[in-house]
Amino acid sequence: MKKSLLTIGLAMLLMICANEILAQKTKGKTAPKKAPVTAKKTTPVRPPANLPKVAQVDAIELQNLLKREGENQKPLLVNFWATWCAPCIEEFPDLVKIDTDYKGKIDFITVTLDDIEEINTGVPKFLQRMKAEMPTYLLKTADEGETISAVYKDWQGGLPFTIFYDGKGMMVYNRQGKIVVSTLRSEIEKITSK
Amino acid sequence: MKRVSILLAVFLMALVIAVPNSLAGEFTIGSTVENFKLSDINGVEKSFNDLKGEKGTMVIFLSAQCPVVKQYNDRMNQVVADYKTKGINFIGINSNSTESLDWVKSHAEENYTFPMLIDKDNVLADKFGAVATPEIYFFDKDSKLVYHGAIDNDRKGDNITTKFLRTALDEYLDGKAIKMNKTKAFGCTIKRVEKQVKNN
After folding, report:
1. The whole model's pTM is what?
2. Which residue from A145, A156, A180 is facing B199, i.e. has the nearest CB?
3. pLDDT < 70 positions in chain A
């Protein structure tokens, strides 16, 4: 009797141990699966809701943004800039004003050449400070030279750079360096009053 | 006599027409740089011919405040160190109307070993058609432009796949034709004096 009790006891102990070991193993197996989920939750993929969203684009996506395809397209104004570019910062309030004044008449996007690290920080913070509502994209391309030439062949890469297309996608104005506000406005007037 | 004066008039007219054209003409690959004189950061006048290298000369448009220039300073200085011994001289040019002499002087003394010249009223930048910083113009031993553009293809320096300038210099020093003699890169626009700003 004593012997059988001992056997039962040992068997129970073994079962508990086995359970423990099994539990440990299962834990080990599922752990890596769980890890990325937790990582995804903790990594800030979007800026806080109150900050403007900035989308990353590559060279091809930029080309698509600049296209005016189909009937009745609005003229498109594009400003290339960066938070590290002093004249870009200086002219930005003028661009925000132009965006406000021609809302509905033209499309206006801005493309920043900031480092990718700034996409959720420096860039949206600056846009917020400027009260800018233009959709803004951060350009990340392996071959900047080729991208620059694809936008406009005579653009040498100096920032800021502003380019204006009519509704058919024809370039009607471009400016490397700070814009002359009156000139850009009169170009927009010319196209929008047609 | 009348015919001679008509011919002379035609010739003079042709000159008048030709001169502005050549001034406005693109300073392209193959163009020869004429000797120019500018003051350095200590107020001493220096000429291109005084400073040019035995094998070639690099003219670099720079800025004391441009973050892109700052990102390139170390790599640029390494190029200077590596090619100076191979007979290539370096001349820095500051054409920014917004940067004071003191500022440019201290920045140059802290960062560069090559002479820095002050391009007052951006005359040289206009002549070269330089628009951004850093922007490189490399002239061969006969002062002909053989490379124009960027140092490499990554401003930050983390992801460089093509060292445009070094490749160009190596090809040139090996007596080969430079395959990529014109490149572009994002940079700070040279701040020109107001009167020079084109009204567009």
Report:
1. 0.78
2. A180
3. 1-49
